[in-house]
Design the sequence.
């Protein structure tokens, strides 16, 4: 455990030094994230950077990544995968398309979904439940039992849903969002822990325009573009290099049936080496997308 903690501290030091952007300085680093204020993505950003940075909410993940690519922000924090809802496919697509951005950090955040409404509202009032697609998926079982007749309305983020409920002032509309969004938007909690499982977690990536050096970090991510019958060869190659898959998501390549983009996160508890990366990133169709440490907020 002690070694893991020191590796995380070393990763944060590398993050500051390698990118020449001090984590705490007179000029704060600029961090774009999926907003508005009160999203789980903001919570992940706050945990990773530990204060001192300027957090800027954006309407979409694509907007947050565009800030990094243009230089308007130093970092972007984006969701990638949830225990219950699986890959957030449009955000995985955004990562695949961001060829000039690199993953420099990862936060695994426990997700506790909360149902909230305007002051005075009760469960019997609720006719519509708003949330991000993931929030709706994660609360589907609870809603089918407790609000079987309520319609579901998808919104850009969980916090956007909370903001919408506050703006409408309609007691028949509720939001599924992070617990802190209730106080932020002046709403009342109608039910806690409406997610399917207490093991509900989301993986978030921290992006930058400059990759970190591999030494001392335990994770790396690659974007692989190939035919489906070739992905086994890539997995064997990763294994042979001492890199074991941690997560894998596939998305259609878009021009031919059977061709896919694969986002593959790999790990080595002893630390990823430059030699291991070189054994993989020279392969046709393989793009190196960054090295980092994964931080699980259960250590908080």
Sequence:
């Amino acid at each position: 455990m002690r070694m893991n903690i020191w590796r995380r501290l070393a990763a944060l030091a590398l993050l500051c030094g390698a990118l020449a952007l001090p984590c705490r300085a007179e000029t704060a680093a600029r961090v774009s994230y999926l907003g508005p204020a009160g999203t789980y993505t903001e919570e992940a950003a706050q945990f990773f950077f530990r204060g001192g940075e300027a957090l800027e909410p954006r309407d979409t993940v694509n907007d947050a990544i565009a800030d990094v690519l243009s230089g308007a922000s130093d970092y972007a924090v984006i969701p990638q995968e949830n225990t219950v809802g699986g890959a957030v496919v449009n955000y995985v697509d955004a990562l695949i398309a961001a060829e000039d951005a690199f993953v420099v950090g990862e936060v695994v955040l426990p997700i506790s979904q909360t149902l909230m409404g305007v002051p005075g509202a009760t469960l019997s009032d609720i006719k519509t439940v708003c949330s991000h697609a993931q929030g709706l998926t994660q609360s589907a079982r609870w809603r089918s039992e407790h609000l079987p007749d309520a319609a579901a309305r998808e919104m850009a983020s969980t916090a956007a849903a909370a903001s919408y409920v506050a703006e409408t002032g309609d007691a028949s509309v509720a939001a599924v969002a992070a617990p802190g969004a209730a106080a932020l938007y002046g709403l009342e909690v109608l039910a806690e822990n409406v997610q399917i499982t207490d093991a509900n977690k989301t993986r978030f990536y921290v992006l930058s325009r400059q990759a970190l050096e591999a030494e001392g970090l335990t994770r790396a991510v690659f974007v692989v573009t190939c035919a489906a019958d070739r992905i086994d060869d890539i997995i064997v190659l990763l294994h042979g290099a001492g890199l074991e898959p941690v997560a894998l998501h596939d998305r259609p390549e878009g021009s031919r049936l059977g061709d896919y983009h694969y986002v593959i996160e790999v790990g080595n508890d002893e630390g990823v080496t430059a030699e291991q990366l070189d054994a993989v990133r020279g392969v046709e169709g393989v793009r190196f997308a960054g090295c980092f440490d994964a931080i699980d907020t259960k250590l908080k």
